[in-house]
Structure formats: C-alpha cells, structure tokens
C-alpha cells in the first residue's frame, strides 16, 4: 500500500501539543487532515455519539465528540479517501493489554481498522508517578514519539506491516535534550524538526504486557477510589514486565511498537457446541 492522505486524530483535543507536533512532522510530505475532538476525551475508549457538531479548524476539523466519533465522521464523510489513521501523540503512555480498550487514542485506530484503513496510535510515557498528568510539556518532549511515528508512516506500509497487522501501538519515552544541548534552541533552530535536538531512542517490536493490577479501595464515605499502581513501579528494578513487552521497552528507554489486530476474534473451539445443542432441549424433553 502507499500512503498519501492521513487522517490525524487524538483524544487530548485538536489543540493539544502532541497532535500539533505530529501534524508538523507529517504535513511536509503527506496530505494531513486533522479530525480531532474539541477538547480532552481521554480514557473514553470506543464511546460513540449519535450526533456531533463539526467546525472547520486550521488543521482540518474540530469535532465536539469522542475519538471514535472523529474517525467515523472522518472516514465516512470528511476525509473518505484517507489511506492511514494516525492517532496522537498522546500525552501519557498506553501500555499493557488492559489499556487498549480504555484508551481513546488506541480506540481511534481500532475504529479505523473496521473501515479497512490501517492506523498508528502514538503515545508518550511521562514520568512522575500518579501525578504525571500535571506536567506541562513543550512540543520538544514528544520528539521520540514523533520521530518513530514519522519513520513508521514512511516505512511500515512498504514493508508489508499492514498486511499482517491492523494497527501499530507506539509508545515512546519522553525526550530529553541531547548531550551538550542546553535545552534551549537558538533562533536559527526554531524551524528545525522537533526531534532534531535529541539522540534517537532505539526501537523494539513488542507485545502488550499482560500484567494487571488495578485496585479499588473504599474511602469510608460510601465511595471507592480506583487506582493503577503500575505508575509507582515504572523503574527498571520495579517494573513487573520482561523484555519484549511494551512497558518494559519504555522503561528501558526504547520506543515500543506493538503490531496488533482488531479485537473480538471468534474462538470456535471454546467447548460451547454441545451446550448450544442442549439449549432448550431439556425444556422440550420435559413437556
């Protein structure tokens, strides 16, 4: 397959720094049309609306709805000739099998796969334990994710990746200035790509971690606090995942690329055939 036109979306909102970073990286060589939510729709999964308002935006369209709304509206009406869906770059990682259905970023490319359009979901791991989401990050922080996503957009279709996978879930570490770089770009560097000032991170093909540890704790006032303890274990010594998993790769400073297919594959040999044959038969025998 060849890629000429890209539908760009996210779950952080059309004006998010991560989406703009990807747009700026892809637009010089591809026809990129953003179809993204008007505001933050994080962790909303594959929620869909009956009606959404759509407004023109300098990058394409702003949709007052979910990431899945954006992809359905985009591929069936606004950008029907898109060759690829790119979602992100999300501020925060989408790591582990249990996050795939929860993530709006991943859900966007899953929806695209049902249209027969492959996709790349791009996310950036932000260190900081449970408070990582409070950090305000400049576009340069997304450099590893942007570099990896641009590389995969350029190379993965010709390599046949989308003949064997419906989408790629990409998670990258947050970029830090390269050695010897003071972290501030000069005026002459302002037009350079956002990944120009960082050394590239290595890339590893991974599978989503199967570790699961969500917790719920009664607060004593009739409520329950729900938390994910993994964010306190994101160090090489504490992370519970082996090499080859998405979470371990990011902790080790690598870009994780998981080639995945759309969910809900039917399992024919599940031991239910006999039950289906018996269903209702006992009642008939008792008549």
From TrEMBL:
Reaction equations catalysed: a ribonucleoside 5'-phosphate + H2O = a ribonucleoside + phosphate
Cofactor names: a divalent metal cation
Chain positions covered by the region annotation Disordered: 175-202, 214-287
GO cellular component: cytoplasm
InterPro entries listed in its UniProt record: SurE (IPR030048), SurE-like_Pase/nucleotidase (IPR002828), SurE-like_sf (IPR036523)
Pfam families cross-referenced by the UniProt entry: SurE
Location(s) in or outside the cell: Cytoplasm
Ranges for domain Survival protein SurE-like phosphatase/nucleotidase: 6-177
Statement: the UniProt record of this protein carries the keyword Oxidoreductase: no
Keywords: Cytoplasm, Hydrolase, Metal-binding, Nucleotide-binding
Principal location: cytoplasm
Residues binding a divalent metal cation: 11-12, 42, 90
EC number per UniProt: 3.1.3.5
Basic and acidic residues bias: start-end ranges: 265-281
GO molecular function, one term: nucleotide binding
Details of cofactor binding: Binds 1 divalent metal cation per subunit.
Entry's family note: Belongs to the SurE nucleotidase family.
Summary of the function given for this chain in its UniProt record: Nucleotidase that shows phosphatase activity on nucleoside 5'-monophosphates.
The protein's name: 5'-nucleotidase SurE
Species, as recorded: Halorubrum rutilum
